[in-house]
Amino acid sequence: MTIRQVSEKYGISQDTLRYYEKMGMIPPVTRTAGGIRDYQESDLGWVELAICLRNAGMSVEAMVEYVRLHRQGDSTMRARLELLQKQRQAIVERRERIDHALERLDHKIHIYEEAVENGELTWGQNCSKENGGK
Amino acid sequence: MTIRQVSEKYGISQDTLRYYEKMGMIPPVTRTAGGIRDYQESDLGWVELAICLRNAGMSVEAMVEYVRLHRQGDSTMRARLELLQKQRQAIVERRERIDHALERLDHKIHIYEEAVENGELTWGQNCSKENGGK
DNA sequence: CCTTGACTTGGAGTGGACTTAAAGAAGTAT
DNA sequence: ATACTTCTTTAAGTCCACTCCAAGTCAAGG
Q1: Which residues 38-67 on B are within 7 A of strand C at the CB atom?
Q2: What is the predicted pLDDT for the residue at B33?
Q3: For residue B124, is pLDDT > 80?
Q4: Could you tell me the CATH number of the domain that includes residue A31?
């Protein structure tokens, strides 16, 4: 699979794919005799993982470290496990913050919906209180 | 409340608080006669809202727009409601991506835990398959 | 052989969100 | 009053994660 096809498959730019590889976020991609990237299944697996974890806000740096350990073989398994657990924790915290914001936003939206329905004017003095929830 | 106290209360730097205000992410903060920031309850409400929504990944730009509308009064209520709904949607999508990554991460962690328990070596050939679990 | 177009590289540029620096004014302790 | 701390401002700097560019290479069609 060419870089163009991979780029289209995952909706990510070719530049970004090259960037991921250059940084070491994924191991070196398989090449043709002429040196052109020819993504194999395993390469795609890494690309998918990278996209997935980046989507969750994991840093490039952490991914690079994970790949570095991975390439050093079985002896780094424990270290990799710890890295993943730590990242998991960070992601869980991110989700908690998102949930918190969503609750707040939903509350606000609810108030606005009522206000808009009731003629947009029944709110006046409350307006200054803004963000009163909780 | 001084900027220092607010900074400590929310674990955010004084610089960031001034930055938020300068950008218009929060309305102008109350000042003393000498021009020094003296945060009132309502100012704190805005700060909290800003921190909360930034934590969820909402952009500075969107918050600025919201505040801008808010300061224009009741006539912008519908526009604000739409803005909030749109942001809500974006945040929900962010959470979905996070959930997806968490599932994947948990699967991976599970595999690593087993491998580490079983003596760190029972994995060998599987290693190349990496990320196989959908 | 020559052109076209997709690929290669290294390196510079961009955008968002802070963060730091520099210079000066105001409130507080002695 | 003098010194110290904490505030003020504007402007420049930093960090991250891309994103774009210039110059060059390679395979296929005419």
Answers
A1: 54, 59-61
A2: 82
A3: no
A4: 1.10.1660.10
